Amino acid sequence: MRAVVVHGPGDLRIDERPDPVPGPGEVLLALEWGGICGSDVAYFKHGGSGTATLRHPLVLGHEVAGRIAGTGPGVSGLTAGRPVTVHPAELVGDGRLPDRLAGRTNLYPRVRYFGSAAFDPHTDGGFSEYRVVRAAQVRPLPEGVSTEQGALAEPLAVAMHAVRRAGAAGGLAGGASDGRTGDGRAGDGRAGDGRAGDGRAGDLRGRTVLVNGAGPIGSLVVAAAKHRGAATVIAADVSAASLAVARAMGADETVDVSDGTALPRDVELVFEASGAPAALGPVLRATAPGGTVVQVGNLPGAAVAAALGDLVTREITWIGSYRFVEEIDDALLAMRDGLDVSPVISHRFGLEEAARALATPADPASGSSKVMLRLGAAPGGR
């Protein structure tokens, strides 16, 4: 089979590898589509992503979908030909977490993730014609959701987790107005998995939301916020092309800050999706006193200069959002119910064009949003 393999900074190859064979409890996937993420670009450009450094050749890709091509012993309920996507995380060890983190498996200290060099040996991703996965990682696609759309379930899950994280801030879940914390029912501890024990976290009905950064994740946060009932979503970015995508994904208003235009003021809930340290000061200034900022854009791991004074003087709640727990299931249900993720796709390339595909989001002049790789032929097209 063919696979997209990074061997070092700037060294990307289409390698021939043996076709995998599923073992007990495993499923063989014939992959059809993959979405390129910023981490894939980082491995391609720099030979590393975050604190993970490339030591050996690595198959890229964690946003993938395809069809079941076979199953190993002990697998039931998953039949050949069924379209599926994949939850790319696998816990290493017993999976136990302290009670205060119960259910928040995205914070488990040892997680193997598709297309990651965090471990040695590395964890190959899914930018290949075939991939064996554990049956527990397989997520069947709902009727009417294509494999191209299914490959976007992973980044949409990241966006939906960020929206749910907003519910971890006091008063945001269910519109509680009596000052009670967590999910609005202080003391029951049921929001510990980031998914809200009473089902209300992430409900943004009637709220005004600002999303700073309208790249693929920011634009998907726009869609997730609208899906959760936000009355008005404002998207801000320095790129006109990105703002056009955000509008197509449901943004009610857009702000082009490339010319020095300020962000709107006194917004109760802000999602910071750019990951740019220089944006933190303006984002905090835009947040209403007592408001909440959800940090979904990855910030640098090294020291940076940032103006953070408003965090204190405006008593802003600033919370992080990392990957997701099981919101990939929510993402698939949302797509089934009509959430259209296709506007976020700007480019499509064949597997043999992988180097060009990865260079596209790395080039600011490309005007790209989500770049897709066709990994294999889908019956009847997309």
UniProtKB/TrEMBL annotation:
Signal peptide (residue range): none
Keyword tags: Metal-binding, Oxidoreductase, Zinc
Keyword Metal-binding: yes
Gene3D superfamilies for this protein: Medium-chain alcohol dehydrogenases, catalytic domain, NAD(P)-binding Rossmann-like Domain
Domain Alcohol dehydrogenase-like N-terminal intervals: 23-143
Pfam family for this entry, one: ADH_zinc_N
Domain Alcohol dehydrogenase-like C-terminal: 216-330
Cofactors, names only: Zn(2+)
Region listing for Disordered, in residue ranges: 170-203
Compositional bias ranges of the Basic and acidic residues kind: 180-203
Superkingdom of this protein's organism: Bacteria
Annotated PROSITE patterns: ADH_ZINC
The keyword Disulfide bond belongs to this UniProt entry's keyword annotation: no
SUPFAM superfamilies: GroES-like, NAD(P)-binding Rossmann-fold domains
Cross-referenced InterPro entries: ADH-like_C, ADH-like_N, ADH_Zn_CS, GroES-like_sf, NAD(P)-bd_dom_sf
Family per record: Belongs to the zinc-containing alcohol dehydrogenase family.
Name this polypeptide is given: L-idonate 5-dehydrogenase
Species classification: Bacteria, Bacillati, Actinomycetota, Actinomycetes, Kitasatosporales
